[in-house]
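Quick question, first post here. What does this chain look like in 3D?
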Amino acid sequence: MRTPAALLFLLACDTPAPESPPRGLAQIEPGAPVAGMADGLLDFPVGAPLGGYTGRCNCFGNAGEVDKRQSAYINNFNPSAGVQTRSAIQALWLENGQEDLVWTKIDAIYSYDGLVAELGERLTAATGHDVRGKVVVSANHTHHMPANYEAGLTWFLGGDRYNEEIFQRMVASIEAVALAAFEGRVPAALGLGIAKDWDPDDRVYRDRRPENDTLGFFDDIPDGPYKDPYLYILRVDTAAGDPMGMFFAHATHGTMLGGDNQLWSRDASAGLEVAVAEQFDRPLVIAHVQTGGGDSSPAGVDREWAALESIGEFGVDAVMALYESTPTSTAPIRLETVSHGISQAREDIRVTRGGTVDLYYAPVNPDGNPDDIIYGPDGELLSPIDEINVSNGAAFCGDDNVLIPGTSVGSEVFPYNSCVDVTVISAVIASFFDVPDYAVELPLIESRRAQVSASRVGPLAIREADGSTSQDDVLFGFFPGEPTALYTEQFRRRAQAELGYDHAIPIGYAQDHEGYLLVPEDWLKGGYEPNINIWGPLQAEYLMEGVFDIAERWLATDAIEPQDPAGDFPISPFPPEPLPNIAPDLTPLAGTPLDAVPEYLYVPLPGLTIEVAPPAVVARGALVQFAWEGGDPGVDLPHVVIERLEGSAWVPVSNVAGRIVSEADHDILLVHTPDPLYPYTDPQSHAWWAVWQVVGHFHDRVGVPAGTYRFAVAGHSAVDGAETWPWPAEEYQLTSEPFEVVPATVQATWDGATLSAWIDAPAAGYRLIDLEGYSQGRNPVRGVTLTWTLADGSVQVDSTEGSIGGQVTSFALTPPDGAVAIDIVDAYGNAGRVTL
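> Answer (accepted):
Ran it through. Tokens below.
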């Protein structure tokens, strides 16, 4: 049944002014903005399981099994095998002389309230600034990074059983980057940029949820596909006007790569982050954070890793245009951030929409059946809702059939008819994993509370979506899950109508994780998205109202209240778990180049002839490989860079922004293979293999400078001395034999009237060569000079312009009299010849 749009968004009555703050509380004093920004990499071990696809679990499909390897870091998932891009951390430490906001972003599947709380405690102890409740950890939602840092049983199906070492390594690395931002604080200038409908052709991202195309939730949004249309930029400069970096926000999903991929990847976020970073001539802190990405998918062209780069090519101009038009100001700002663990007790969940509705769940009736009537005569949602007639929540709602027969919640009406009682499904999940007793206590610990946060910052200089400028306070809402497009739009509209915020920015995948966040009317349309959250259609908007409660009761006053003086809003902590005690292998040969291809070496590029050392000469666009004996992944994550010989010195190759070309970004693939593959408890040797495709990082993709290059590797080998992490280790270093990079060969054909020219990419290529070409096929040539050679030995330049189509560049030509050959040279000196 379609819900009439007239019911869905109602302007609230005037909200009464907040009560005056109690005496004795510190009063908010605007102050000049001070900011520090830093970035770094998360310390994960290769072998840790990737999160985001339940199919990677041996219990559900066994996707991503590259071989029979085992790992000390898995329970029931397949282990990761290497790196396409490392997991990045970006941090912004913002203060105004009175209050702090510490915003960190990680490349991971989701955030976790235990991680946020631990980080707040550590940063408070390290800096003397009490930032408890003022720390934000938001994730980019890639489905291709280690994920077993979340202690809740609910999420074991998304990333394997919790591992204390993974958690500790994660916290330590985020802490280090946040402290670097703290140490780098300087007087700052801030600005906010807003663009709308910035990707009209769906080249960067697109709507993936057809179930709500005819929902009609807002009268002014027509039926059809709808994605969160906003792009936001929080621009940070020094007070002197030098750029420090930006946090830019838009919706997407980190699912360009599928569940069979077992290499770490930042997925869709990486392409645009890298592209934006290379618009500057120095390293800046560039972070993509999420808005309504829950029902969007990445777009792009080409395949797999090359497609990620195409997203950057398609989106960078819009991001930079907004950045450049965003004003900044050093004017004093008020700053306050509050975090609360919101109760998710079934009886507490209620949605009021500013007093215009009263939606809640009926008490559980163990002897009764639901009435299965969802809508009233005018299409309104009826309350109380009795279709989820269970005490501990329900999962896997939204399908036509119950996942496990005999486990339904009692309803026979869609979408409740497929819901599975958490009491049952939790026992099933527990059977897949080696779980402690507390993990299956009901209601599940992670379901009892959800952490939400809100920040009021401003007034900021703002570039509005229509191109005008203003100054205003900004409300940031940090949401513990995957907001969908209608949910983020509801947040913006309700924040304006009920609280008076003209600038309210929703940030998803932050602070905690509760699954997909949909407004009730959208949840009731069913489909994939309603199946993860366990407290039904009201959960998400109830949490939104928790953010509004913070904004009204805490942020709207002129006082800085304690975060939670009465203990009403804690998170639900998990009991501590011990660190694993499987020590890494001792590898005395670490740092030794392999002199022959092993009997087995995992390589993620089908069809590639495996080599362990570079050839003497490598053409642009080709693949060059290097392999060595390294350390156990418990201590070794080799840092692999490309060096170029300049004079008599070897110098690391860097991109135009000054960042070193390495395994951290998409240039070099890094893969690990243990021998034997199993069991991991027996002694193993550890082979590491790297491949560099000779392609420019972002600019000049077929123009890598000719010259002498080599691989340079720095890694670690374990030594005795510990029973748990951190494992002691010693460094090793090695380099490959040098190799010469030479121009690529331009391929061409001549049919008597048309010259067609292109550059072939390798059959196993993984880098984007050209948006109008193909990473494993032909690619057009650009900036071409054509030169005819005549029979008498003279030459004649032809100025005919080419046209690009079908992955080649074509020239309609009339050969001069006596022509015997034509030479094709592109802008970078890549050349070819056709003999007539």
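Residues 1-21 have pLDDT under 50 and may be disordered.
The longest strand covers residues 449-463.
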